[in-house]
Amino acid sequence: MYEFNHIRFTGESLILLDQRALPFREIFIECKSAADVAESDREMVVRGAPAIGICAAYGVALAARNLQKQKKFDSPTDFLAKLDSEADMLRKSRPTAVNLFWAVERMLKIAAVTRPDRVAEKLADEAARIHGEDIEMNTRIGANGAELLEGGSTVLTHCNAGSLATGGYGTALGVIRSAWKQGKIKRVFSCETRPYLQGARLTVYELTRDGIETVLITDNMAGYMMSRGEINAVIVGADRIAANGDTANKIGTYSLAVLAKENNIPFYVAAPRSTIDPTTKSGAEIIIEERSSSEVTEIFGRRIAPEGIRVRNPAFDVTPAKYITAIITDERVFYPPCDFKRG
After folding, report:
1. How far apart are the C-alpha atoms of 318 and 241, rounded to whole Å?
2. For 208-218, what is each residue's pLDDT tens digit?
3. Is 239 an active-site residue?
4. Model-level pTM?
5. Catalytic residue among 36, 41, 134, 239
6. pLDDT tens figures, 247-265
7. What span, in angstroms and rounded, lies between the C-alpha atoms of 7 and 127?
8. What domains sit in the chain, N to C, each tagged with a CATH number?
């Protein structure tokens, strides 16, 4: 299976594959501070909830290293206050993905019980641990999800929930990869995923390198394909899962879930347990990020809409739990009704 060395930590900097340039060029960007990492998150150099969380962890490690190196603190308490301020830049970079907040809080808990002269080393180790754990979790998600598919299945996926969106292997694409290896998948349909084209640019890029038969469709073709019996299952990732099972994912996911329900097609969400947020009661409480209008009015820098047109660009939508057949995690498969407040 094709893997991407898209997140690399050197100890002094974080090297990220610039996903904005794919599939045409492979360009790497060096982040030397938490501010650099936050900007890379915001500007979509890196995207995908698990990958954003991993990068945030490395961002906290970089912040600690820089504070320690520059001696910009007066006491251990002052060090933690300044580290939290640096971490806050990361928290604000992408408000919908819960993995970001989970990873930052995990790092700050380590910092709180570690001497300032050793904290940079400890945090670098913890970030690497988070990275490695994510790859292991994705492998288990893949195995758990593959069991749900019948032989000869044709599946539809949306956005990119693969290696590029995670530490490696992928969530939704992890299920697809595992099922493909078992001979259960005949073909994958990938929605292009407007406006940022993550499906066309990234998912197709990954799957074709794995030798998985892939068909690219525009987002508005999905219902037609379902009505013709050409799709047996839909598998997507998630950026935040509420306590009741409502799920935020890339804009367009909700529409696919409704279409799947209408056509009696199972709709699966694949995500690590860290994407489940028991403090968020339902999807109504999930903050939906609004992005730049230029992502809608332009494609690759070329304007496609009249000047002055008003634009809405929510990056995510929420799929109510009633439309979800199952949530596939690294632990096990959960079937609605869900109550994640109780674990």
Report:
1. 9
2. 999 999 999 99
3. yes
4. 0.91
5. 239
6. 999 999 999 999 999 999 9
7. 12
8. 7-139 (1.20.120.420), 149-342 (3.40.50.10470)
